[in-house]
Write a structure and sequence with these properties.
Oligomer: single chain
Low-confidence stretches: none
Strand order of the largest sheet: 3-2-1-4-5-7-10
CATH superfamily of the domain at 5-185 and 198-230: NAD(P)-binding Rossmann-like Domain
CATH architecture of the domain at 5-185 and 198-230: 3-Layer(aba) Sandwich
Order of helices and strands: EHEHEHEHHEEHEEEHHEEHEHHHHHH
Mean pLDDT: 95
Largest sheet: 7 strands, parallel
Shape: globular
Number of helices: 15
Length: 341
């Protein structure tokens, strides 16, 4: 056990974090500390691993909790974050967790794990609206969309990491799509239908972080766009169409002005293959995603959804902020979503 690398994983109960934890355990060559906030959900998810890893419940906003977890670590995989829509609804909470939490982690590493390798999970949202120029490179300017609080916290956290003398690597994640982690919500209407999307499965995302541990020399002090590649590219309209079909929801036939026309994010990673050439993490495709999605929806559930598709879509439409802004003639709100009002 003494020669094994010691890994600290924050956000261990999240969609990607839980997958990272499983893949680390499969390799059977690490001593793992899983750090997360203590909630009924995190306890349920992490309970099965308590005999195999050191599960530490703490608050990343508390410097003392984080510093204790950092002691004697060789690698830190930092996934803990407040994500949309909560990040946009609770601005202060998102800042405290995403930015202050990262500050605490950096300080903890500087005190107790100065030679550790920090792998940080950032986001495609840092590039902002790319409707007119959907091909994205990691050297592109970071111009978050207005009101995208999550993107701003990621940009600030990236800057904090780059300003340190630690060893680090930043992955800017494409749209994470797993069959069990995305429930329909109002945020679905924030993305323009003609948005270019490159999806990324939780398993491929986790695989990139886990394999990165063994490729520190090639990755150190660099930023990479992490996406699924050419076999994971689609427009948002087609993505919705195929998703609705899989669930039994029928056509994507919402009224005009239900979806925003601007100020979201996403695109295609022009330089995404650079990371894939260093670490072979891509296993999933659009087709495998939709195959899994169809398998995850039972015939009974699909039939039930078909019967109630109209009220379901009506309930979804009520969550559309763009549509509400358009109907209410709220010029200030509508200007966030539409080119002309």
């Amino acid at each position: 056990m003494g020669n094994r690398k010691r890994i600290l994983l924050t956000g261990a109960s999240g969609t990607v974090g839980n997958e990272v934890l499983k893949q680390l355990l499969e390799l059977q060559q690490f001593e793992i500390t899983a750090f997360d906030k203590k909630t009924s959900n995190s306890k349920r998810i992490l309970a099965p691993f308590e005999k195999q890893v050191n599960v530490v419940y703490g608050d990343i906003r508390r410097a003392q909790d984080v510093e204790e977890a950092c002691k004697q670590q060789d690698v830190v995989i930092h996934l803990a974050a407040v994500i949309p829509p909560i990040a946009d609804q609770h601005v202060e909470l998102a800042y405290e967790v995403n930015v202050t939490g990262t500050k605490n982690l950096i300080r903890g590493m500087q005190k107790y794990a100065a030679n550790a390798f920090l792998l940080y999970s950032s986001s495609i949202s840092v590039y902002g609206d790319r409707l007119s120029d959907p091909w994205i490179k990691s050297s592109d300017p970071l111009i978050p969309s207005p009101h995208d609080n999550y993107a701003r916290t990621k940009i600030e956290s990236e800057a904090l990491i780059q300003a340190t003398e630690l060893d680090w690597c930043i992955f800017r994640l494409a749209a994470i799509m797993g069959t069990g982690n995305h429930k329909a919500s109002g945020i679905m209407f924030h993305m323009p239908l003609n948005t270019a999307m490159e999806i990324l499965s939780p398993k491929d995302t986790a695989r990139a972080f886990v394999m990165a541990i063994l490729h520190k020399a090639e990755l150190n002090h660099q930023i990479f766009n992490l996406g699924g590649g050419e076999h994971c590219r689609i427009t948002y309209q087609d993505f919705l169409r195929r998703s609705f079909d899989a669930f039994g929801l029928g056509k994507v036939d919402f009224p005009e002005h239900s979806f925003a026309e601007k100020n979201f994010h996403c695109g295609y990673y022009e330089d995404g293959d650079e990371l894939a050439e260093i670490i072979d993490f891509r296993k999933d495709t659009l087709e495998s995603y939709f195959d899994q999605l169809k398998s995850a929806v039972s015939p009974f559930k699909k039939t039930l959804t078909r019967l109630f598709r109209k009220p379901i879509k009506s309930r979804l439409l009520k969550q559309s902020e763009p549509y509400d802004a358009w109907l209410s003639k709220d010029k200030k709100m509508a200007s966030r979503f539409f080119n002309e009002f």
